[in-house]
Amino acid sequence: MAEAEEATAPTARKRIESKFPIGLIVRLVAYLFVGHLFAFFVYLLFVLGAENQ
Asked: Which of 1, 4, 17, 51 has the most neighbouring CB atoms within 10 Å?
């Protein structure tokens, strides 16, 4: 039974990588993380600026 699972795992991974290359997935996650981090920073600037008035 373990042999059947090992045999299907590489084909499933290759199928996913054929649709989305691993580099694209890494860049997408990195851009989403950095984009949200930047948006939080800008939001924080506005909140702190509003408190100083």
From this structure: 17
Tokens read off for 2: 């373990």
Question: Tens digits of per-residue pLDDT, 23-53?
Answer: 898 999 999 999 999 999 999 999 999 988 7
pTM: 0.57
- The tokens for 19 are 């649709």
**31 token code pair:** 């851009």
Query: What DSSP state is assigned to residue 1?
Result: -
Per-residue CA distances from 35 to 4, 25, 44 (Å): 41, 15, 14
Burial 6-24 (b: 16+ CB within 10 A, else e): eeeeeeeeeeeeeeeeeee
